[in-house]
Prior knowledge:
Blueprint: H1 2-38, E1 40-42, H2 45-50, E2 54-56, E3 59-74, E4 80-83, E5 89-94, E6 101-102, E7 107-112, H3 114-145, H4 151-177, E8 193-197, E9 202-207, E10 214-215, E11 222-225, E12 231-237, H5 238-241, E13 249-253, E14 262-269, E15 278-285, E16 297-313, E17 318-320, E18 323-329, E19 334-339, E20 342-346, E21 349-352, E22 362-366, H6 368-381
Antiparallel strand pairs: 1-19, 2-22, 3-12, 3-16, 4-11, 5-7, 5-10, 6-9, 7-8, 9-11, 12-15, 13-14, 13-16, 14-15, 16-21, 17-18, 18-19, 18-22, 20-21
Protein name: Efflux RND transporter periplasmic adaptor subunit
Organism: Pedobacter puniceum
GO molecular function: transmembrane transporter activity
Amino acid sequence: MKAFIYSAKVFLLLTSIVLFTGCNSTKEEQATNEETNEQEVTLTKEQLKNVVLDTTKLSLRNISSVVKVTGTIDVPPQNMVSVSTLLGGYVASTKLLPGMHINKGEVIAKMEDQQYIQLQQDYLITKSKLAYAEKEYQRQKELNLNKASSDKVLQQTEAEYKTLKISLNALAEKLRLININPTKLSEGNLSRQINIYSPIDGYVSKVNVNIGKYVNPTDVLFELIDPSDIHLNLKVFEKDINKLAIGQKLIAYTNNNPDKKYHCDIILISKDFDADKTAEVHCHFDEYDKSLLSGMYMNAEIEIKNHEAYTLPEDAIVNFEGKDYVFVTDDKKQFTIQEVQLGVKENSFIEIKNTTSLSGKSIVSKGAYTLLMKMKNKAEEE
């Protein structure tokens, strides 16, 4: 009897184990099926009538990439002019304001000081003394020829004449440095003022003085910009610098007016990188616009050379939870979602990098987001 009871218990235990194992196996199969089904969407005939679906396959095409960078409008050092006066003085008048256009040779300021008068006076006095010394030198030469004058007197007269000649030439150069023409200077047109002329055609960048202010020779009165060589200074990251070349075309635009495009050419590529791993790329504008000012912030798009790549239309790509997907189908009834890695986008086509699993397959090119919505709704219902 005891043996019979023991056998029954063993039988019940084995039966429970078999049933438990069977239940677990069924649950695992169901979970696997559910996981597979979560990646698929099946449309009925009625649903297919109400959904517009088109399919395509990977296509090989030439595509060019675009490097997007930022920068500022810059002026080379040779096109930036700091205006100073070589002799200190008071600012008598000026009409300049930042942003004003000025022409080369235009009077941009007047300075006055008593030392200007003194310099003109010294020049005229030296000029008068030289005239007398020249005549005296000629007279002593004649006397010396007739032995009526000693060689010593002749040498002293010659030294005086040459010294005054040197002094006069030096004073004349000083007058030219302060924009006074010594050949037109006479005792009747001495002036306490001098003119400051613009050395370039361009624009006023900074005005550092006001009327009545005394300035020293080391002080900068004005800063001027010659826009003839204004250029765009871009900051390009290290990973993109080797993609660029001298003469390469690009398009630039401002934040305020992004629709207005400025065409440029690359003229210089720096090989020195800053702390942020960027290098300077200098570009010339094909046509200069007066509205572009030094220091203005700009965006730029640089087109890189064409390369062959497998692509899909933009409409074939759906984005879900930060990842990109496409729908693959064999019969246009059942659709499987598959993640893709994207590359360059151009003319409504996007480069696909992981092409091995998609090669030769039919991919939904229109209606992909409709399938994604149905898949999400299905997951929520479950």
